Amino acid sequence: MVQYTLTLKNQIDNEKFTHILNLQKEQENRPDIFFTKEVCLEIQRELEIKSACKISDRQMKRIIQHWIQDIREGYRDSMITVEFSPFNEADLEDIHESGNRAVSAIIYPSLSDVAPQLGALPPLKI
């Protein structure tokens, strides 16, 4: 098995995110066969989680094409600079979180100690 590393560099803040693949000799010789739609979606999902940014299908296609070309040329480390866009409100519906969804108990305030100090209205100076 040969290890291939993809490093994506965010053009906006220079932050880097990596993804590692282990390829067999046959996959190494024909990387275009290895990168099926399912594999590409898995890589896209993982990179979106790591970067907390939205990676469009067009960007992902460009990233995979670049990585395939680097693998064909024998490069084991590939770095690609991409301009990531952060998730917007419409994309937040697509995020599935498995956090604590229990509704906490409501705590009502104690109003027994609340009373006006000098009456209903403040003192007037005429």
Structure overview:
It contains 4 helices and 5 strands; from the N terminus they run ββαααβαββ. The chain is 32% helix and 21% strand. The chain is elongated and about 90 Å long. The longest helix is centred in the middle third of the chain and has 16 residues, at 57-72. By secondary structure, it is an alpha+beta fold. It has helices spanning 25-29, 31-34, 37-51, 57-72; strands at 2-10, 16-23, 53-54, 77-82, 85-86.
Structural class: alpha+beta
The fraction of residues assigned to DSSP E strands is 15-25%
What share of residues is helical? 25-40%
Work out the helix count: 4
Placed side by side, the strands forming the largest sheet appear as 2-1-4
* Main sheet record: 3 strands, mixed
Shape designation: elongated
SSE series: EEHHHEHEE
Instruction: Give the number of DSSP strands.
Output: 5
Radius of gyration: 27 Å
Which segments are poorly predicted (pLDDT under 50) over 5 or more consecutive residues?
A: none
Mean pLDDT across residues: 82
* Terminal Cα span: 91 Å
Write the layout of secondary structure elements.
Blueprint: E1 2-10, E2 16-23, H1 25-29, H2 31-34, H3 37-51, E3 53-54, H4 57-72, E4 77-82, E5 85-86
Parallel strand pairs: 1-4
Antiparallel strand pairs: 1-2, 3-5
